[in-house]
Write a structure and sequence with these properties.
32% helix, twelve-stranded mixed β-sheet, single chain, 12 strands, alpha+beta
Length: 285
């Protein structure tokens, strides 16, 4: 039973990775990008993205709808609200729609789960079969600091990423690339928006902290497309990269900026701690 419990722990970590857009990349998915903008146009694009970064950060919260595919490993959808005014907070409903992760979740009794973000930890509510194997507890708590226990330092990186999962991070990523281009005016869910795109190469990122995050995640290159509305708010993003299990693609829509966000901490009596589960796995107390 314990083995099943621990496999489920790994499953939820995979969910967290997908939500933050973390993936091990080996090459870019873009091979036929048009020529770079001239200097003046490039400067205008950079200015527009900086305005979007500030406006999105000030908004403090938004409703999020996303789809993520990671090769044969998984495909999933997520929707809910996230806030970032005082640390990351929010609640998302996650549904696995394909891949080996969906099969694993199906064996645990449900392909859907609830995820809650709080400033100090991430919580995932599993199904009844999982609770039967985890002492009756339905929730797993992942303290961001405890994620450092994962092998190879990936846990520390994951914890940092989960605490900074905000819409403006995609804008920052594109700005840091030095490869910002304007595709033109388009419609996103019936509203006008401006489309910008570029290729992010970790080695060329000038922001030292961001370059370190990309390097630790195994990212070499990644394509990023974002759409900004007339209020300078990010309304859509698409990120693509290649990884060992295939192409990773994540598409997210953002709206209802400033929405009230609620993320209640689950009952302690119904919550198992990730660190305790890992300790049991290793046979220590």
């Amino acid at each position: 039973m314990q083995g099943t419990t621990v496999r489920s722990v790994g499953l939820v970590l995979a969910v967290a990775s997908a939500l933050t857009g973390v993936a091990a990349c080996t090459s870019s998915d873009s091979s036929d990008s048009p020529a770079k903008e001239d200097r003046a146009a490039h400067g205008q694009s950079v200015a527009a993205l900086r305005a979007a970064e500030r406006a999105t950060q000030r908004a403090g919260s938004a409703r999020v709808e996303s789809t993520t595919t990671m090769g044969s490993l998984m495909s999933m959808t997520a929707d809910g609200t996230l806030g970032w005014a005082d640390g990351i907070t929010g609640t998302l409903s996650i549904t696995y729609t394909g891949g080996t992760m969906a099969d694993t979740m199906r064996r645990l009794g449900s392909t859907s789960m609830e995820a809650r973000y709080l400033p100090d930890a991430y919580y995932a509510r599993m199904g009844e079969k999982f609770a039967e194997q985890a002492g009756g507890k339905h929730w797993i708590r992942y303290a961001y600091e405890d994620l450092k226990a994962l092998a190879g330092g990936s846990g520390a990186h994951l914890g940092d990423q989960m605490r900074s999962t905000t819409p403006n991070q995609s804008v920052k990523l594109l700005l840091a690339s030095g490869d910002v281009r304007k595709a033109g005016e388009e419609s996103v869910r019936g509203r006008p928006a401006t489309h910008y795109f570029g290729t992010v190469a970790a080695a060329d990122v000038t922001d030292a902290a961001l370059r370190k995050q990309l390097t630790e995640a195994g990212v070499t290159t990644e394509t990023v497309d974002i759409w900004i509305d007339e209020r300078n708010l990010l309304v859509k993003k698409v990120e693509k990269a290649r990884m060992s299990t295939g192409l990773m693609t994540q598409t997210a829509h953002y709206g209802d900026y400033g929405v009230r966000v609620r993320a209640q901490r689950p009952p302690v009596s119904d919550t198992g701690d990730f660190e305790d589960l890992m300790r049991k796995k290793s046979g220590t107390r």
